[in-house]
Amino acid sequence: MQPSVPSPAPSPESSPGSSAAPAAPHFDERLTAPGSWWVIAGLLGLSGGLITFPFGTVPMLGGLIVAAVLAGVAVSSYGSARIRVVAGSLVAGDARIPVSALGAAEVLDAEEARAWRTYKADTRAFMLMRGYVPRAVRIEVTDPADPTPYVYLSSREPEALAAALESARTGAGG
Question: How far is CA 59 from CA 46, 49, 68, in A?
């Protein structure tokens, strides 16, 4: 689940005898939930079983399964946020932004990231943040037609994300 910036190994499409352009820079990160959240989901399942225990064995098993599944789905869906740089676009959650509409990417340490999540935050900004990921990247939006001032993305590898965005921007000729 670590972000990856693959080496510039030649692909069959970009071999010397091929006229295809080299592969676009790639970054892929899933902001998975920490393991402790899964333990809590299991404990919620156990509590569902304990709540329904007075009604008998079958209801207790039903309560255990239903509570565990619901808690697991909640943790899984929250931890399924994904950030990618692919095909000249930044894909963060449901948003797809062409790198040509983005400016400089600023890597934020834990303290600066917290500041941009709280008192420095702009309500017009697009934010994909996870409290359990302490570092982030803030990317200016340069499209004059877009009222969004910047994109804030939590990332475990913000340097790799910023490098992939810069590589995609220079690779796109912009």
Answer: 13, 8, 14
